[in-house]
Amino acid sequence: MKRIMAMFNNLKIRSKFLVSYTAIILISVFMISTINYQISADQLTEVTSNHSEYSMEQMMLNLTSGKRDVEELLSLQYSGSNIYRMINGDTFLLKMSSNEKDTFIRNFLFYLVYSKQYLMSAAVVDKREHVYYVNKVDSKLTEEQAVERAAADEAKLRNSAETYMWSPGSGENIIIERAVYDINTSEYLGVFIVEINKSYLSDLYVSMNKLVGGNILILNESNEMLLYSNRDAPDTIPYDWMTHYLTQNGYLNGQPTGKLAYEGKPYLFIAKTSATGKWKAVNLISLAQITKQSDRLKFWTVTACIISFFIALMIAYLISNNISHNIRLLLEQIKNISEGHFHKRIQPKSRDEIGLLAEKFNLMSLKIQNLIDSVYKEKLLKQEAELRALQSEYNALQSQMNPHFLYNTLETINSMAKINKQEDISNMVCLLGNLLRESVRWKGQTIALREELSYIQDYLAIHGYTYMDKIEIAYDLDEALSEVQVPKFILQPIVENAIIHGIEQKSGKGLIRVSSRRMDGELLLTVSDNGVGMEPGEIDAIFAQEAQETQTAEKHTGLGIRNVDKRIKLLFGKAYGVTMQSKMNEGTIVKITIPLNQEEVQYGL
Asked: What sequence ranges are listed for the domain HAMP (predicted)?
């Protein structure tokens, strides 16, 4: 508490005023809403309970009357049919054969089932488990189930004080059973079973259910469920759990009303017993459903309190708004600067200390903006100058080939002309002419990949004549990438480096492999050789900035690789360029990555 009071004392005056006023209003709103809601909820619960008790009494009268009507109908049909004599086999007295007896019993069952719409099936099972069975299409009781029920309920029926026993059937229909005795000898002959549609009883209480609401559960004398209205509705308690709870706590035998909780939700229940004391009805209503009727009162009470609270809060806000206005403007300007909006300015409403601070902040943001603009322009000019320098360097490399390469090529052509006098000389001259012609003709910074690969193929073909069988060339090219634009002369320095510093210094035959493929939205060009390889430090030296000035003429290919890497990065960004992998006495792999969708790549930065 002391800590809270210390925090409150350190608040500004405006904050203290708002916090105090808010606390008073919130406490008042909470107390008024809670008291009103509790009173209304208790009254609604009491009214609902009284109304439910009265409705349940009327419903039990209806159910008792309906039960009696069914039993009287069955008794009347049974007593006038001489069924017991048929089952007992008194065929001599009746002058009937066995087949005629069976036909008589089945006709009796047929006329009985079709005499009322709610009767679904009927069966007679004698003590020898011989069954006579008639059913309608919608019946849920099968002939086999009738035999099983007769055997299972025989003892209960013979010992029951009631003539008819009602129990739940399959498919939620209801089964009525009675024992069949010989009137003269009181000998037990079998079981008479009738299946009725549950709608017969549910129609008797459906109107009551609408008035009372909730769920209504009808139980027989053994607390077995005969009917359960709205059992699939939300917030319905499972039958097994509810009957166990009510029986365990004595609610089905004594106390007529009470409350219970299931899964943390409260319910009100009203239990009623029939006049005969055999059947029971339980009305289960969710308290949330009862108190839902008081939600309107709660809504308008809370609404009125909230409106009053906001009116009072608005008055407090207007009083203190002038004090904190310049502070909010200052915080807004800080947010603008953090987001990079240095051009925005604030206009303070007053010339107090906070207003002066806001003016100084405007001046500071202006100076920061000017500084950023100058740094950006300087960086842009530096990049443009670097790009021009690299382009000049590239043009210089383009305009002159390695003298060592030209010398060897011309010497080879000369030797072949003198010795062989065959068309190989013509081929070499043509290839060399193509190289020189293409290096002069190409314009612009990028060309199609097929043109770059064509240039390299001519270049390697000349080397094939130069080194004879010492060099083997392999190509693995994706034709679908042939029109992708790439910077000019990005493969020639890498291939030349593989020949001079890899294959030429290797004893035996060398292999150079050139491949192109698509990988994750990028073009991947690979030049690999099985030459002498390089140490990791040599690769680092090729890409090192300081190595550029000390590069000798014999190692100009390192400068060429670095030039290719920097040109790609300046054109497409730092995510692209040249990477190298090498192992001594195993060879070198050089990879070039270029974006396929070059329009989305930001140029320059």
From this structure: 321-373
- pLDDT at position 323 is 65
Do the Cβ atoms of 553 and 380 come closer than 8 Å?
A: no
| Separation CA 347–CA 47 (nearest Å) | 65
| Alpha-carbon gap, residue 148 to 455, rounded angstroms | 95
CB 47 within 8 A of CB 55: no
Could you tell me the pLDDT band of residue 523, with boundaries at 50, 70 and 90?
very high
The total of other beta-carbon atoms located within 10 Å of residue 396's CB is: 10
Please tell me the distance from the alpha carbon of residue 576 to that of residue 579, in angstroms, as a whole number: 9
Helices (H), 271-294: 287-291
pLDDT at position 273, please?
Answer: 80
36-40, 132-136, 180-184, 447-451, range with the lowest pLDDT: 36-40
Question: Residue 263's pLDDT is what?
Answer: 79
Instruction: Tell me the C-alpha distance between 380 and 375, whole Å.
Output: 9
List, in sequence order, every residue forming a beta bridge with 578; answer none if it has no partner.
592
Residues 6+ positions from 51 with CB-CB distance below 8 Å = 211, 212
Kind of pairing, strands 510-519 and 471-476?
A: parallel
Neighbour-count burial for 419-457, b at 16+ CB within 10 Å, e otherwise: eeeeeebebbeebbebbeebbeebeeebbebbbbbebbe
In three-state secondary structure terms, 193 is strand
H or E element: which one contains 257?
A: strand 257-262
Return the higher-pLDDT residue of 350 and 165. 165
CATH (one of 3.40.50.300, 3.40.50.150, 3.40.50.2000, 3.30.565.10) for 400-600: 3.30.565.10
Quick one: CA dihedral 480, 482, 484, 490, positive or negative?
Answer: positive
Tokens linked to 575: 């995510």
- Look up tokens 């000798």; give the residue: 552
Assess contact for 86 and 106: CB atoms under 8 A: no
Question: Where are the domain boundaries for CATH 3.30.565.10 in the chain?
Answer: 400-600
**Can you tell me which residue has the tokens 């001594």?**
584
If you average pLDDT over each of 47-56, 270-279, 566-575, which comes out highest? 566-575
Residue 429's nearest CA partner among 469, 467, 471, 461 is 461
Q: What residues contact residue 125 under an 8 Å CB cut-off, 6+ apart?
A: 131, 132, 146, 147, 150, 190, 191, 193
Max mean pLDDT among 286-290, 387-391, 459-463 falls in 459-463
**Ranges of CATH 3.30.450.20 domains, the chain:** 42-292
On whether the 42-292 domain is CATH 3.30.450.20, my answer is yes
Determine the Cα angle at 34 with ends 28 and 38, to 5°.
150
Residue keyed to tokens 């005023």:
17
